[in-house]
UniProtKB/TrEMBL annotation:
It comes from Halobaculum saliterrae. It is an enzyme of class 3 (hydrolase). InterPro entries: Helicase_ATP-bd, HsdR_RecA-like_helicase_dom_2, P-loop_NTPase, Restrct_endonuc_type1_HsdR_N, Restrct_endonuc_typeI_HsdR, SWI2_SNF2, T1RH-like_C, Type-I_R_enzyme_R_subunit. Signal peptide: none annotated. One of its GO terms (molecular function) is ATP binding. It holds the Pfam family SWI2_SNF2. Belongs to the HsdR family. Keywords: ATP-binding, Coiled coil, DNA-binding, Endonuclease, Hydrolase, Nuclease, Nucleotide-binding, Restriction system. One of its GO terms (biological process) is DNA restriction-modification system. This is type I site-specific deoxyribonuclease. The lineage of its organism: Archaea, Methanobacteriati, Methanobacteriota, Stenosarchaea group, Halobacteria.
Amino acid sequence: MPDEYAESERPALETLQRLGWEVVDQQQSTWIDPRDTGSSAVLEPRLRDAVDRLNPWINENNLNKAVRDITQVAGTSTMDENEQIHEKLVRHTSVEQDRGHGKQHQTVQYIDYENPKNNDFFALNQFRVAGPVEVVKPDIVLFVNGIPLCVVECKSPLIPEPRSEALDQLTRYQNERDGESEGAEELFRYNQFSVAAWMEGAVMGTYGTPKDQYKPWRDAYPLEDDELAELFDLDGYLPDQYRMLYALFEPERLLDQLRHFTVFENKQSGAVKMVARYQQYRAVRKALERIDKRGRREAQGGVVWHTQGSGKSLTMLFLALKLRRLKDDPTLLLVTDRRALNDQIHATFERCGFPNPKKAESIEDLRDRLGYDAGETITTLIHKFQTTDDEDDFPVLSRNENIYVMADEAHRTQDKELANNMRTALPNAFYVGFTGTPIEKDERNTRRTFGNYIDTYTIDQSLEDGATVEILYQGRLADIHLEGETLDRLFDRIFSNKTDEEKAEIQSRYARTQDLAEAQPRIDRVALDIIEHYEEDVPSPFKGMVVTTSKEAAIRYKETLDSLNGPESRVVVSEGHNDPEHIKKWTPSDSEKSQYKESFVDPNGEVELLIVCDMLLTGFDAPVAQVMYLDKPLREHSLLQAIARVNRPFEEKTHGLIIDYYGVSDELKEALAMFSSKDVERAMVPVEDKQPDLEAAHSKAISFFDDLDEVEQCVQSLEPDDRRIEFKNAFKRFSKLMDVVLPDPMANPYLEDLERLSTIYGTAKERYRDETMNLEGAGAKVRKLIQDHITSRGIEVLNDEPVSIMDEVEYDAKVEDLESDEARASEMQNAIKHEINVRFDEDPVQYGSLRERLEDLIEEYREDRLSERETIEELRALMDEIRSRDREARNKGLRGETDLSFYHAVEDVLDDHDAEEEEVVELTGTLVETVEGFVTKVEWKERTHLQNKMRKEVTGDLYRSSVDLSGDQRRELTNRVIELARAHYQ
């Protein structure tokens, strides 16, 4: 049997101990809970000791105030409180105290960041925190100075879905599952990291991180894996769990990430907490190392290439936060070449609480700010580094070395006259170029200007980590692609219904390829195709962007889509002073642009399509966007940046899709020729390239069965756990590829088998009560298709709970409806097994006995010692016994209001010991009476002191009883009785 404690939890505790944490393992030793109430998550005595130690001048009143300030934060939500607490941990709090010079405000430190060893690092397993309804018990909680900063949920790597199970528990603890109050949010007011670990894998997030956004940590820079293996005395091989625990919880790194790599961004849906991922943390550390080596044969800068969608703007922000802390009043200059990007970067810094970023309002304003050497953070467009009419050369503004320039989209902005002016103005500054696209293979521009790569995070790495999704492309309406066809042929095709005279007149007006692209007959055809594709093939809630050749084309598309009753769309184009009136009519104001973007990004917002020509093709982050309708010639960096609008992950988003109407994909190699092929080979993948993968996935999925039409036979063949896991993984792989390919005709040969496999999959999930057999990751299109199909077949929807055997009428009717005795026997044995597992903790002795009887019965059936009818009768008798026991437990009677189920559970535990029946009966009654004296009290589960008192009284009852028990036996029995009470009265 898998052993979570031995295979993940205990090794994690040992790892933390090696990293310098004080560790208490409650399976190995007794821990005295110091809390007054189980609903508190802070270890207040440790917090008080730490605050007192780090602030030796503090008096008792102010010590009490400082503790209250961090433990009694009141906010509008748990996220709001988390943000307030983070602010106090990083910037500390203030108290008023007389230190001999009159009363003054003094800063109180909760954490000593400069000297990590001055802090109290304590790790505890099985720490219980009471929520409004249930008590949660994470596997490991990590406290810094008594404050619970981190939660780790451990799973055995041998169970079917360790990642999914661990993340499901973490989201349950946070009350993030369908809004149910089943967790303890109190624990997460302080949370910095939440980790799911299963030895062979580990993923991390923070409070509020959606399940699908937990990510691995693949590089513990600056240590290599072999160095980590040596650190932990491992024989060469390093399981992922060790890397994750070191990367996040080595004390100095943990405090660094709390202080410099954590930000809150206020979005339309509310505040979002963001912590660094490994490529961001690594890039910042490498950049700082490069800065420290400046002048020692290193260039005055370097390039960070992190592929589009991997959090480049946040990396800039984290580097800025570190520079602000490490350098003495540095000037930070963030440069881009587009107003929208400048606005975005400024807004990101501002929203994330970066101290007072300034936007250069003019050429003169920028010069003034840089000339002051005032240590400001300034955002600007590169265009403000231009000479004035009376200047031949750009002036030197500052020779200060304490200036750090971060240039976004460095490939585009840094190899022309304006960039030279900037270097003239700031000759001793340190320059870091950030780019979301690889550097050109001939290296003639960006690398020469900035120096070599500081860090790279490639398309392949991003896809592997799930930081982005794969982008597929598909050419549509090939006969009107503009590349690769002569203008004459295109003209004749588009205007085939015109007379020669009309053609001559039109041709005099349409002289360019772009004119043909914007011809109304062509736009009519493309717009209709967009509508049909979007409505039939893009599942809710996903959205799309239409990319056009010009403002004129954008407006024609808008008017045409509206005239055809297309999806709700908006035009987002820039304002031009010389635009004609019909374009000005559709040009949105700045506030309207913001509204349109917010509505588009919101999955429930009314805007479904955004129509653009140049705007929003860089820097616009909309995870809900799945499809881009591309009707514009794009090449090189522009192409890579534009298509990346659809590569952001979103729930049930298996891929982004480019529908190419212009023929860009026909000449893809040429369009990306300036890059090394290995850097861009997975930038866009043709849909037809998925054919071999789909065929292989289909073959694997059907290989488990001899005849897909024999559903019951197929379902029963999946009874062994390992076989069911293999089939589940194969089915999900097949389903995901079908979601990617549909509605391409290449999927048609496999649709019937998808439906038949869905029936088997849904029936097996229901039969074996296998919660891991969900449709996570299958994709929105296929998920709906599968659920509609299995519902029509009368199978429980995959996300629903199967009918319990305790629901006598409904369950018995369900069994009778099955088509054979073989199916009935299979269904009943699995339903009974599930019920026993669910109830086992309430009475381990009794339900352990029932489990053994069930296993013996199944063995007899498999060996043909019992017929199907005999087996069904035996199973029915077992089921009746469980039901009868449940009914008896619900009927109060014996010993007044005593719950018989709990009474019998205690009695069963005592029966294991050598004692007379009368002694057992007397001691059982005493123990039950003691326990029920506590569990009837209000909030007994939340009040730790009540539980500790109950433990003492139970131990006293055992000590005073006539049953002969050793000290170890009394301790063991006390623990078992307390656990039974917690399980039973939950």
